[in-house]
Design a protein that fits this description.
heterodimer; A: 180 residues; 4-stranded parallel sheet; 6 helices; B: alpha+beta; 4-stranded mixed sheet; 2 helices; 4 strands; 33% strand
Chain lengths: 180, 79
Amino acid sequence: MFAENATAFPAENTMQVSSNGKAVKNKLSMVVFSGDMDKVMAALIIATGAAASGMEVCMFFTFWGLKALQQPGKLTGKGLFGRMLGVMNRGGLDAIGPSRLNMGGMGRWMFKVMMKQKGVATLPELYEMAVDLGVKMMPCQMSMDVMEFDPNTFQENVTGPVGVATFLEEAAESKINMFI
Amino acid sequence: MSAVTHTKVLDLKGLLCPIPVVKMAKAIKEVEIGETIEAIATDPGVMADIPAWCRTTGNELVTLEKVDKQFHFVVRRAR
């Protein structure tokens, strides 16, 4: 009944040209601005789904998004304000809370319990899956400077720090672009 | 299902989005072109997602049916 839908394969024969004059690739680029559990989860699900559908995927983590790349237990910050920020807002995929109803961590705990009951993959599992599928994770240099992030507080498989021009180059050759 | 033997059998029971699609993507690389994968899932989302995944990746969806509370489908690697 669904089989007749499966014949068409439109990619590659529709050639589009990007703003930098190069061919648009079968690629997804994403700005991950949010460091909230729910939004990072959406970002990782879309990224893994795209990679599993044969797309090249690039995620650019900026501002609060950097919190998602942090290794659990590693604190950030050099000066007084930077250290305060690091202590008040601990990073790592297990420590980040939902964008609404976090209630000092209770919401995070509740969501984790509910997700476990239903068998949804956890954020660390999704991250690992994304890395396995070859999703590129790029941290924003400027946000790292502002928030006093040291590159060695990041998880493995994160590229070196990059800036807006690098992201735009990736975005320009992508079929799909997102901001989360 | 039928008496046809499939190259690979995948158990996707209890797994939710995006894992069925991720597992299909891995499994399809492990079979040759023309060979088939049979899978059973419990996530109702696969009814929409597996046909969509087949269209984007250019593989052939042979069958997709709901049996009781499970979803059985067969995909043939086409490229």
